[in-house]
Amino acid sequence: MALSLLLLCLLALSALAYVLARGKAFKSAGGDIRLLHSLPGYYGWNGALTVALPSLVVLVLWLGIQPAVIDNSVASMISDHAAGESNVGLVMSDVRRIADGLDLAVESGAMTEDYAGSIHADLTDVRGRLGSLGVALGSEVTQEKMRAAQAYRSMTATGNWMRTGVVLLLAFVGLAISYRRADKDFRARNFVEQVVKGILISAALIAILTTVGIVFSLIFNTVEFFKLYPATDFFFGTTWTPSFGGGSDLGILPLMWATLYISFIALAVAVPVGLFAAIYLSEYAGSTVRSVAKPLLEVLAGIPTIVYGLFALLTVGPLLVEAFGEGGILGLGWMKGGTAVMTAGLVMGIMLIPFVSSLSDDIINAVPQAMRDGSLGLGATHSETVKQVILPAALPGIVGAILLAASRAIGETMIVVLGAGAAARLSLNPFDAMTTVTAKIVSQLTGDADFASPEALVAFALGMTLFVITLGLNIFALYIVRKYREQYD
Amino acid sequence: MTDTSLAPASSTPGSRSRSLLELDPHTKKRNAAEARFRVYGIVAIGIGLFFLVALLYSILSNGLTAFYQTSVTLEVPLVQTEIDAAEKSVVKTSKYRDMIAAVLVQKMEQAGVATSMKSKELLQILSAGAPGTLRDHVLSHPEQIGTTATFDFLASSRVDGYLKGRVTRAALAEDKNLSAAHLDIIDQLVEKGIVEKGFNWNFIFGSDASDSRPEQAGIGVSMIGSLFMMLVVLVLSLPIGVAASIYLEEFAPKNRWTDLIEVNISNLAAVPSIVFGILGLSAFIQFAHLPQSAPLVGGLVLTLMTLPTIIISTRASLKSVPPSIRDAALGIGASKMQSVFHHVLPLAMPGILTGTIIGLAQALGETAPLLLIGMVGFIASEFPDGVFDGFLAPNSAMPAQIYEWAKRADPAFYERAWGGIIILLVFLMIMNIVAIILRRRFERRW
């Protein structure tokens, strides 16, 4: 049964359960609502939830697990010599495409179901026949792949039938149970509330699940990568020259260097500007200036990073070349192309200004008024108060804000993908094009490489490094901010 | 408490005779420092606002031209025999191209524009997609065969760029797609009103075009892709986010597990978006075998990204509902669950919706994770047929489409990228304004 039909069935069954359970409870009370333990609706919900919840959970799990199980067992059918020339992943994607093609052929009536199940690749031109239906196959169909594809199809079909059966069975069992339970003394409200609370808890657990998912997906592939490529070469290698033909050097140091260099420039722009803006807005500006300037600065934070990326690539880069490039206004000849560490760093700094300023603004505002009054009362000028009383008091919080901004800068992707360049190099010149960890994650995973090669897997190791660094910075920063906040609360 | 007792402390010895109204050097220095400090602040804000203005200026000045497109008006006689012959040939558009060329030559003769160019060369003025446009029109309007139909064929991107000031004669010297001689013709055709600029609806509602036809590229299909993604995000992240926040804010006991979840959420909010892309790639595509580049997968990834934002803002608005509301509900016999769902949640709803819209706006502009799940390249070429296809068929999203254009070699695509940004920012602006209005109109101060 198709998935949408199954879902409709479930919906209908739960509606039926709602009506039946509610009706039965009402009847058991003799139509007198005062004799019921709970409001009638709760009896109905009790029915609907008992039908829908277990079957939906099973359905979702089934949908997640079935493809993986089938893949594994079909992959084990493929002998080593078939996989020898390429690898199992590629063969499997071929198998899947053949199976899809057969499905399409059966659906459009070009083949009968029996024929599709028994077709022999050595005797028939399967590729030609599927090609005429619009399914393009990359390589020639061998009998082994054909058998695997047929097994794949039959297992999927069986799996789908079993799925429908199990889900519907659960739904009917739920219907029976809830119908039997519906009685005027049944504590329907307590039951429903327990279930709802369970749903709430599982929603909260999704946050944990996401983290676990991130960590697992990174770790598994990183371990896989380190099996193919030594970890010491990755962490201490100073050259980055991936080549999909193999024999590539995948040292993280040049990427890390560019990442930190760009982040440093970004912070050098954002921290002074953001901090002074925050100080002015919270200590000097009148309410009208504040109510205009603050939202306008925060507009910068709401602009998507792709916009900054384009701004770096097409506006800031060419401008910098005009100033610092060969034959430029300053006649320095430092810059060769528009994409450079400086370009990306400058634009990223602009992006971070509102981030630094609004966080610092909050922190400066949290400094108690009594400290300002005390300092001003002793005869200090306003700026002396800021420099010698407020900033020291707010320092931990500001450091936390800067660390959060740094973690943002390190993890930023689009600006560096478009603005920083594509070549990895270790150079001190900020007008050289360099490339960063995030930019390389994008380029290694959007190519056509298959996921088993070290050139693609390295992206996961890069992602892992990035995740660990930003997580460390975040935890440290949040710890500092939180600790500081408690002081004055 | 008297002034005299303070005077020695604030002035150097020997200046005792000075009037209080006259500033000594030290005070002058301090006041100057004060003034400087103030100026630093103003300069900082000025720099921030300058960047904002520069950014907006470069978006508008580069992007607005994308909304206008040059086209050539031609009246093509649709003759039955010619069309039959064209449909019979192997490369169907080539005959249509000949038809257009004949009309173009004739039109130029009528207008008195003389040229020594061959018709094939002359056709470089028009977009390479012009024959396709003609054929599609003929096939969808067979009743017009035998009459003369008027077409606005797109001019090629070089011609368009020339009229918009992007392409100069000098730049065409090494260009094999157009020569300076073409531009002379264009100048005359513009005078005669045959070549005109019109509003570019195709850019807003059309589909992406291949590398060689920037004049045909539009953002419409990826807009649909974004729409389907936002539907997924809304349908998943709002209920899950609200449920999670209700649990954490109203029911969770204060223990280590709750702390863990809370720390987790605040950390997830700061995880780089590209890491969510990696998660989506390995969990949804590698493991669960969901289709690559599908808006459904993009929506799932963005849901996970948006959840922390929604949870944080929902918790804040739940927290702002005063405890007296809960107490009153409990006092007249409601259960804890009833007090939350019947009283607290409706009161917190405006705040929750505001947070959700802002979260959605963030998700709409996010690019990096979409690149990893395959929303890159020339994929937004066809409108999805039906809702099901809309979720599962490969499609791009607005920011990914902009990135795609920014990457292409032809500078004519840059104009599209800036134009796409204008559309994206208009959407973001609308969402933010709705959020602000919601907040102003419905938020209660207790």
UniProtKB/TrEMBL annotation, chain A:
<protein>
    <recommendedName>
        <fullName>Phosphate transport system permease protein</fullName>
    </recommendedName>
</protein>
<dbReference type="InterPro" id="IPR035906">
    <property type="entry name" value="MetI-like_sf"/>
</dbReference>
<feature type="transmembrane region" description="Helical">
    <location>
        <begin position="45"/>
        <end position="65"/>
    </location>
</feature>
<keyword id="KW-0812">Transmembrane</keyword>
<dbReference type="Pfam" id="PF00528">
    <property type="entry name" value="BPD_transp_1"/>
</dbReference>
<dbReference type="InterPro" id="IPR000515">
    <property type="entry name" value="MetI-like"/>
</dbReference>
<comment type="similarity">
    <text>Belongs to the binding-protein-dependent transport system permease family. CysTW subfamily.</text>
</comment>
<keyword id="KW-0997">Cell inner membrane</keyword>
<comment type="function">
    <text>Part of the binding-protein-dependent transport system for phosphate; probably responsible for the translocation of the substrate across the membrane.</text>
</comment>
<keyword id="KW-1003">Cell membrane</keyword>
<dbReference type="InterPro" id="IPR011864">
    <property type="entry name" value="Phosphate_PstC"/>
</dbReference>
<feature type="signal peptide">
    <location>
        <begin position="1"/>
        <end position="17"/>
    </location>
</feature>
<keyword id="KW-0813">Transport</keyword>
<keyword id="KW-0732">Signal</keyword>
<feature type="transmembrane region" description="Helical">
    <location>
        <begin position="389"/>
        <end position="406"/>
    </location>
</feature>
<keyword id="KW-0592">Phosphate transport</keyword>
<feature type="transmembrane region" description="Helical">
    <location>
        <begin position="301"/>
        <end position="321"/>
    </location>
</feature>
<feature type="transmembrane region" description="Helical">
    <location>
        <begin position="260"/>
        <end position="281"/>
    </location>
</feature>
<dbReference type="InterPro" id="IPR022182">
    <property type="entry name" value="PstC_N"/>
</dbReference>
<feature type="transmembrane region" description="Helical">
    <location>
        <begin position="456"/>
        <end position="481"/>
    </location>
</feature>
<feature type="transmembrane region" description="Helical">
    <location>
        <begin position="199"/>
        <end position="220"/>
    </location>
</feature>
<dbReference type="Pfam" id="PF12501">
    <property type="entry name" value="DUF3708"/>
</dbReference>
From TrEMBL, chain B:
<feature type="transmembrane region" description="Helical">
    <location>
        <begin position="37"/>
        <end position="60"/>
    </location>
</feature>
<keyword id="KW-0472">Membrane</keyword>
<feature type="transmembrane region" description="Helical">
    <location>
        <begin position="223"/>
        <end position="248"/>
    </location>
</feature>
<keyword id="KW-1133">Transmembrane helix</keyword>
<dbReference type="Pfam" id="PF11812">
    <property type="entry name" value="DUF3333"/>
</dbReference>
<keyword id="KW-0812">Transmembrane</keyword>
<dbReference type="InterPro" id="IPR035906">
    <property type="entry name" value="MetI-like_sf"/>
</dbReference>
<protein>
    <recommendedName>
        <fullName>Phosphate transport system permease protein PstA</fullName>
    </recommendedName>
</protein>
<dbReference type="Pfam" id="PF00528">
    <property type="entry name" value="BPD_transp_1"/>
</dbReference>
<feature type="compositionally biased region" description="Polar residues">
    <location>
        <begin position="1"/>
        <end position="18"/>
    </location>
</feature>
<dbReference type="InterPro" id="IPR024573">
    <property type="entry name" value="DUF3333"/>
</dbReference>
<dbReference type="InterPro" id="IPR005672">
    <property type="entry name" value="Phosphate_PstA"/>
</dbReference>
<keyword id="KW-1003">Cell membrane</keyword>
<keyword id="KW-0813">Transport</keyword>
<feature type="transmembrane region" description="Helical">
    <location>
        <begin position="344"/>
        <end position="365"/>
    </location>
</feature>
<feature type="transmembrane region" description="Helical">
    <location>
        <begin position="294"/>
        <end position="312"/>
    </location>
</feature>
<dbReference type="InterPro" id="IPR000515">
    <property type="entry name" value="MetI-like"/>
</dbReference>
<comment type="similarity">
    <text>Belongs to the binding-protein-dependent transport system permease family. CysTW subfamily.</text>
</comment>
<feature type="domain" description="ABC transmembrane type-1">
    <location>
        <begin position="223"/>
        <end position="435"/>
    </location>
</feature>
<feature type="transmembrane region" description="Helical">
    <location>
        <begin position="417"/>
        <end position="438"/>
    </location>
</feature>
<feature type="transmembrane region" description="Helical">
    <location>
        <begin position="268"/>
        <end position="288"/>
    </location>
</feature>
<feature type="region of interest" description="Disordered">
    <location>
        <begin position="1"/>
        <end position="20"/>
    </location>
</feature>
